[in-house]
Each structure stands twice: as structure tokens, then as C-alpha cells.
Amino acid sequence: MGVLPTGEKKVFLSKLEEISRKALERPEEFWDEHARVLEWFKQWDKVLDDKDKPSYRWFVGGKINASYNALDRHVKTWRKNKVALIWEGEDGSVKKYTFRDLYVEVNRVAQLLKNFGVGKGDRIALYLPMIPELPIFMLAAARIGAIHTVVFSGFSSDALAKRINDAKAKLLITADGGFRRGKIIPLKEIADKALESTFSVENVIVVKRTGSNVNMVEGRDFWFHELIDGIPRNTYVEPEKLDANHPLFILYTSGTTGTPKGVYHSTGGYLVWVYWTLKWAFDPKDDDIWWCTADIGWITGHSYIVYGPLLHGLTSLMYEGAPDYPAPDRWWSIVEKHGVTILYTAPTAIRMFMRYGRKWVEMHDLSSLRLLGTVGEPINPEAWNWYFEVVGKKRCPIIDTWWQTETGGFMIAPAAGIALPPLKPGSATFPLPGVDADVVDEEGRPVEPNTRGYLVIKKPWPGMLLGVWGDQKRYIDTYWSRYPGWYYPGDYAMKDEEGYFWILGRADEVLKVAAHRIGTMEIESALVSHPAVAEAAVVGKPDPVKGEVPLAFVVLREGYEPSRELEEELIETVAENIGPIAKPAGIVFVGKLPKTRSGKIMRRVLKAIVRGEPVGDISTIEDRAALEEIMGVFKS
Ligand code: PRX
Fold first, then answer.
1. Among residues of the chain, what percentage have pLDDT more than 70?
2. Number of other residues whose CB lies within 10 A of the CB of residue 514
3. Ligand 1 near 414 CB (within 6 A)
4. What is the mean pLDDT of residues 81-86?
5. Rounded to whole angstroms, how far apart are CA atoms 201 and 168?
6. What is the pLDDT of residue 277?
7. pLDDT, the chain, mean
8. Rounded Cα gap, residues 514 and 322, in angstroms
9. Comparing C-alpha atoms, which of 273, 539, 533 is closest to residue 406?
């Protein structure tokens, strides 16, 4: 099943095994050596401290700064005048920043943050569109040891408020608005609404992007351009010498229960991990133009638009707008215009482009491309083949990278930087060095080849999350209690007879909608916040483009009747609570939800019905009529 362009499996495995063996058998020695690619102010005393496991700590005693490693380190070299960031606006305007330009701006913004009294350990929330100020503020925060929490600009005011409150952010950076398909998203207005229910934010800095009229609160809100004007270009802010385990950022992500978790990452281990994973998987070179299409509001953007590429001194491209705006060839025109050599995106985007047809791709010269990457959800072989043939013209290997917000960087991916293995469409191939992955059954026993089991990571790795912000118990319960001693990512997987890993989707109540991670529980809580709703259960329904979409089963309270209007109102409630990405594709009004005798909603059964699969064992069901009602709906 191996496909072109293919590596020699024997060569690949022997090279990978050689490195992996060392990484797993003598991790301290391995990482001691590998961490030195970055510049540390002080070397670590201990590579891995496991005395409080599973709260592992890497490079203990080491002092480092992310902004220094991303910028100052290059400004001292010939890379000073190399382009670090290419930004393309939705309107087609382009801005380029050399490493020196970014360095200048980051220093100025770091000073600005200090002027607001922001210092080491303070949290600042960034609610910004995909504009250069976003990475600039991230790096400026990192420079002074402030912890950034970026909130995806597609999230609603409620979602923003929750994150600000959990992180107790002191400062909020937003914009007057953001462009999406030529329309303006009123970010400042949304932020103002969020601020009505937050207590920690003292000031708001507003970046002018759209020129919309916004309400500025005297003494609280300030225009970025006015503030930055007063800060000279030769401003230098000494980078803080931070402990390796000083948190670099918090990023909220959905889980099975409760509100989104504040996953927070270290400075040292995280940087080492994003550096090496990018090197091993893509082996980027100085003349590469790297384009990761994610939004910086997600981990993919943090690790592989901002930190990873800059650590490598690469030119990283960021695009502001929608992929198919103003026409379905927008991405391909960007690849051609900027000579993109490595494109890293999600299967959902590929499936969308497949729908538009190959002609939009073929309008452009894509010969600059040399590698293609994918992330965020399992890639179906049809999408893989289309990406390979139509976009990559069968010349570019597909680097399918499995990882998560929590892992900081890639975990399982073809290590093209070591030796390219023969690829199989839909398989992320093998774990990278330092990743001790396996597929096991409920009891933790390795499963037979080609059998579905649970993915586990049996050893700590430098990029691992430090914890869940403010809730270390949740960290242990979520990731380390299902298989004590092992990290549990919550994914189904299998290994084939050749040892290739195949990720088969989430094993829990988390959805991947267009590669975005959304908890069914969050959507359910949003629905039950509506006065008409007594109970709600949300499951993922397969979708040809988005992978899956949320479908909600709703039981109404006495006095409410199902209607088209109510359905729309409920969908809107979800958009208001979370954001448009979480909108259910539909609401199924039912008289009763299938429950076990102990009162638990049988989501597994609902999921099976929606997917047209056998419902399996229903011996514990409390009332079969509830099930029959729903089965009736789906039969028709
Ligand atoms: O289910 C897996 C899926 O995305 C989840 C992590 O989501 P998030 O934290 O939002 O991070 C996404 C970007 C790193 C995983 O638990 N996933 C991610 N990459 C892949 C994938 N599923 C299959 N193949 C992948 N390459």
C-alpha cells in the first residue's frame, strides 16, 4: 500500500529507531544534547524531574526566553534582514516583516505592556483577528514573562468572558473588527459585552483594523496606534530570564466535562519540542516559505505559525481571511504569489476544495511546493489522494501529523527530516523520537494489529502540558487516571501489521467539527440555558466536508412546542454561548432521551443511530419507547 514518493522502509526504520531508541532509553542524555540548539541564559540542573509525577518538569533550573530565541537570536546573524513574517490581508494587501522588523515591534510592544503595569506571570488575553499584531503581542508578552491566552476571534462574548475569568487576565487586546468574507466581525463590540461579566481586566488595547466605529471607555480603553506612536523604534526591553517551567501561554480547549480547560505550556520544554518536531517532520530549510493555514487562536497556529517557524528562522506566512474568498482559488493564488514551499493545513479544507473542483487549483503554478502537511482530524484516503495528486502533483510527500493542544507539538508523523518512510493514505505513520506511543485495550494490554484500541503515550515528553490552569486535579483525572502512569489523549487508534499508526477519531464526547475541537457537553449546556429546553444530548453526525457536525436532541419543557423558529432560536443560543463554529446542524425534538436505568443519557446509542450503525447492547435502557421514537425519525 506504500505510495510515491516513497522512502525505503528499511532505511527509514533503522534511522528512526536509532534516534528513538536513544530518546526513549536515555531521555536525559538525549534531551540534554537536543535542548542545546536553543540559547539558554542558564543551563538546566536537571533534564527531567519526575518527583511530582504526573506533573513532570523538564529542564529544571534552566533559564530561557521565547522572544529572545525567536528574534534576538536571529537578529544577531545574517537572518536579521530575512523575512520572518509574510502577512496577506483578505483584501489582498501584503505586509512583510524581517526578523529585525519583528524584533523592533516586539520590543516596542513589550514596553507598551510594561507601561500598563503588565509584568512576569500576569495574564493577558488576546482576542484578535489574523493580523500581524497578534504574533507581535504574543512575543512581546513572552519577552516580559507575561502569559498570553489567545482567544479565537470566532468565539462569542460568553466564551471570551469565561476564558478571561478563568485566566484572570489583567489586560485585553482586541481590534475594532476583523474581516471575514468581506464582512466585518465587530470584535470590540463582542469584547465589550464580555467585559460586562469579567472582573480582572483593567485596560483594553484596541488595534484599528477595519476602521469601524467603536465605543471607547474613557480611562479603560486605548487605541494601539496612538500608544505605539509614542514608543521609539530603538526601544529595547531586556528579555526576562525565565525559568524553563515558567508558563508561556494558556490555551483553552474542550474536553468531555465542564467548561473548556486552560491547557498551559512551559517555556523551555515547549520550545525545545516545537523546534525538534518541526525539524523531524518537515526538515525546513532557510529558503522555505512555510505556510500553516490555521488560525493562531488554536494550538496549531501557536506552535507552527509563530513559535516553531521563528525558532528555525523561517519565513512564516499568515493569511487573514476565508480560504475561498473572493473565489475558490484564493489559497492557490497565495501559494503562487509567495512561492510557498511547505503547506500545512487540515483535511476539512482539502475536502472543501475537492468540492469546488481541481480547475481552481490548476489555474495556478504550484511548482514551488515541496511538502504538504495535514492536521486536526483523520484524513480520509480520498482527500489524501486528491491533496497528493491535484495539489502536490504526486511530487510532494504528505506529512500527516497527529497531535493535540496538550502535546504542544507533533507526536506521530512521518519523520521526513530523518528519512521519509513509505506513506500510506490516512496513516500518520510512526511516533517521533521521544514519543512512546502504543494502542491498548480497556485493560491497557496492547491490541492485535488492525484492531481498534486506545492511543496512549507511555512516557513524558518535553512539549507536554504543564497542567490545567488552576485545576491540577483535573489534569490528573483527565489525562493520567484512565491508565495510571500513562498519558491518555482520548483518541481511538490502531496499528497495522507493519506498525503504522492509524488515528481513528475521538473516543470521548469531544467533536472535531471542521478540525475544531468542541465538547458536546458545552453545546448541551448552551442549549439547556434556553428556557424552552428541559434536556439536551449532542452527538457528532458525519459530514462530507467538516468531518462531523453537531446534531442536538432536545426535550422541551412543558408549554413549549417544536417549531422551525424555536429550532433557529436554539441554534442561535449556541452561537451566542460558544460561537458560530459550534452551531448544531439541526435540532431533533424528542419526547424523551434514551437513558440507562441509572439516569445517564445513552449518547453512544444516539451516535450509532445518527451514523446508521447497529445500536449494540441496550439491555440497560430504561425505556425502549424513547429509542424507538428516535429510530423512527432516522428511518424516514
Ligand atoms: O482527535 C485528534 C485530532 O485532534 C485532536 C486534538 O485536537 P486539538 O487539541 O484541537 O489539536 C488539533 C491540532 C493539533 C486529537 O485528539 N487530530 C489531530 N491531528 C490528527 C487528529 N486526528 C487524526 N489525524 C491527525 N493527524
1. 99
2. 20
3. no
4. 98
5. 8
6. 98
7. 96
8. 13
9. 273
Relative to the CA of 412, which ligand 1 atom is closest?
26
φ, ψ for residue 604, nearest 5 deg: -55, -40
User: Which atom of ligand 1 lies nearest, measured to the CA of 505?
Assistant: 1
**C-beta pairs of 435-441 under 8 Å, 24+ apart in sequence:** 435/411, 435/461, 436/24, 437/411, 437/412, 437/501, 439/493, 439/494, 439/495, 439/501, 440/483
- Separation of alpha carbons 397 and 393, rounded Å: 10
Residues 78-98, mean pLDDT to the nearest whole number:
98
Eight-state DSSP code of residue 378: P
Total residue length of the chain: 636
Q: Is the pTM of this model over 0.70?
A: yes
Q: What is the rounded distance in angstroms from the CA atom of residue 295 to the CA atom of residue 305?
A: 9
Q: Are 605 and 627 in contact (CB under 8 A)?
A: yes
Q: What is the 3-state secondary structure (H, E, C) of 501-562?
A: EEEEEECCCEEEECCEEEEHHHHHHHHHCCCCEEEEEEEEEEECCCEEEEEEEEEECCCCCC
List b or e across 606-625, with b for residues whose CB sees 16 or more CB atoms inside 10 angstroms.
Answer: bbbbbeeeebeeeeebbeee
Q: How many CB atoms lie within 10 A of CB 26?
A: 12
- Whole-angstrom Cα distance, residue 179 to residue 212? 11
* Pairing outcome for strands 123-127 and 171-175: parallel
Question: Is the beta carbon of 124 within 6 A of some atom in ligand 1?
Answer: no
Tell me how far apart the alpha carbons of residues 151 and 247 are, in angstroms, rounded to a whole number.
17
Residue 146 and residue 158: Cα distance in Å, rounded?
24
- Please, how many CA atoms are within 13 Å of residue 374, restricted to the half-sphere of its CB? 31
64 SS3 class = strand
pLDDT of 6 over the 90 cut: no
Q: On the CB side of 36, how many CA atoms lie within 13 Å of its CA?
A: 5
Out of 307, 403, 520, mutate this one to test ligand 1's pocket (max ligand atoms within 8 Å of CB): namely 403
| Best residue among 517, 546, 548, 581 to mutate for probing ligand 1, ranked by most atoms within 8 Å of CB | 517
Grid cell for residue 412? 506521530
With cell 467533536, the residue in question is 511
